[in-house]
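Page 42, continued from yesterday. The earlier attempt failed because a stray header line got pasted into the input along with the sequence. Redoing it now with the clean sequence only.
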Amino acid sequence: MTRLLQFTDMHLLNDPAAEWRGAVPQRSFEATLYHARRNHWPADAVLLTGDLANDEFDQSYARLAHMARRWDCPVIALPGNHDDPVQAGAAFSEPPLYWCGQHDLGNWRIVALDSRIAGQAGGSLPNEERERLRQAAAGRGHRHLAVTLHHPPVVMGSRWLDSVGMDDGAEVLALLEDLEASLCLFGHVHQAWDSQQGKLRILGTPSTGTQFLPRSDEFALDTRPPAYRWLELHDDGTIDTDICWLPDEETTHA
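This time it went through. C-alpha cells are written below.
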C-alpha cells in the first residue's frame, strides 16, 4: 500500500503574514500541515498540485521548499495557473523535492503533469505532456497509473469555474481511459470532487486556504475551512481516500 497526502492551492505570499481573500495563506497552510502530521503521518509521498504561490514568487517557493525538505518523504510538485514554473521548478529541483515527472511508489506509477496555459486562468494538456503521459503509461509494467494535474478535466457545474477549467477536459479523460489509468487527482477548484468514469477515479481537493462555493454561477467564496486529502493506494488498484477539513479550533494554528 502507498500512502499519499495532497495539499493544493496554498496561494502563498512573499509576506507570510499577508492576507488573501480573508485568510492568511501561510498560516492556514501551516495549520493544515500540522493537522496532517498529527493524524496522517508518515506518508510515502506528498503531492503539491499547483497554485503553490499567488503571483508573488521571490520568497514563497524558497520558504515552501525549505519546509518540504523536513517532511522525510518525496515531495512532488506541479504548477497551477498562478505559478511561475521556472522559479518553482528551480526550488523543487533536488531530491527529495521533485518537479512534475514520473514517480514509482509501490505498485503505482504517479505522473505529474503541467496543465497551465501561460497568462490564462484556464488550462489544457499540451501535446508534449500527452506524449510524456503515453510514454510513462507504456513503460509502467504491472503498476497502476495515477495522474496528477492542476486543472479539472471534468465539468464542475459552476458557470464561472467551468469557464476557467480545462479547454480539452473531455479529450484528457478519453486519453486517461485509453491508457487504463486508475486515478486522476486535481486542484484548482477549491472544493471537493469525487466521481468515477469506468475504472478511473476522479478526485478534486479543496484548498489549504479559502474555498469556492460549489455550483455557483458567479464567483463566490464558501465558508468551509482549509482542507487536504489523504489517499491509500492499494496494490490491487483500489483506492481509499477522504478529505480532512480542519476543525475550527485548529484553523489558526501556526
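Notes: The helical segments are 25-39, 60-68, 85-91, 127-138, 159-162, 169-178.
Reminder to self: strip header lines before submitting.
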